[in-house]
Amino acid sequence: MDPLNWSYVKVLACHLLQIPAPTSDEMFYRLHGRIITRAQLVGVVASMQHKTDRTEYLLDDGTGEVCFVDWQTDAPPCQLGDLVHVFGRLKPSWERRVELHATKVVVAVDPNAEMLHWAQAQLLYQHVYNQPAPYVEAPLPTPRETTLEALCRHAFLGLPLPVEAPDVDDALPVAIVKHLAQDNAPSSIRFRDAVADVVVVPDMGASTRLGRFRKAFALLRRLGALYLQGSSTSSTLLA
């Protein structure tokens, strides 16, 4: 992910005013092709207009004027003529012009704050923002094939079945696959016949045998080793 995407990007008003509005196919602004969603500006409050649910300000930093909106209605964060440092989210106005929805407004005490912001914003604009995004490709995790998945793959491809001992939870599905993959085994088997014929070690009681077989058949169908044939009472090994 581009680090600019969710950062408060230091810019000047002229930088924001030259950014085209997002198209109908895209929700975000792009600065030199890089997506930005937040920005910070330093300038003088040139005008303010109180609304029912918000206050709209016009910030002038000497390079242009950008509107920023404060949604706090209890106490205004700044007054007309204040030098302010504004952090906000980039949104299109009803006129399709860029504006900031303020998340933080700080009245600057140091009169040099504006010049410092100018210098930093220009430096970043020339040497960082116009560079390709430094994407970092994370290595893809290597999937680990379970004993049951390996057994189903070998059965499907007609390969010799692996002799690796299965996990305890996979003992029943493994026994079903091995039973169906025998040379003299029929290509299909009824569920009730499997419950009666498949030998499972260790053996299980009759009360739990049916439920365990249902779960095993469902698991094998999800893995693609079995599929229903004609009705819900018969399943077939795909190998």
UniProtKB/TrEMBL annotation:
Annotated compartments: Chromosome, Telomere; Nucleus
Protein name (database record): CST complex subunit STN1
Domain of life: Eukaryota
Nucleus found in the keyword field: yes
UniProt entry keywords in alphabetical sequence: Chromosome, DNA-binding, Nucleus, Telomere
GO CC, one annotated term: nucleus
Species this protein is from: Saprolegnia parasitica (strain CBS 223.65)
Domain CST complex subunit Stn1 N-terminal: residue ranges: 15-123
Principal subcellular localization: nucleus
InterPro entries: NA-bd_OB-fold, RFA2-like, Stn1_N
Pfam families, per database record: Stn1
Example GO molecular function: DNA binding
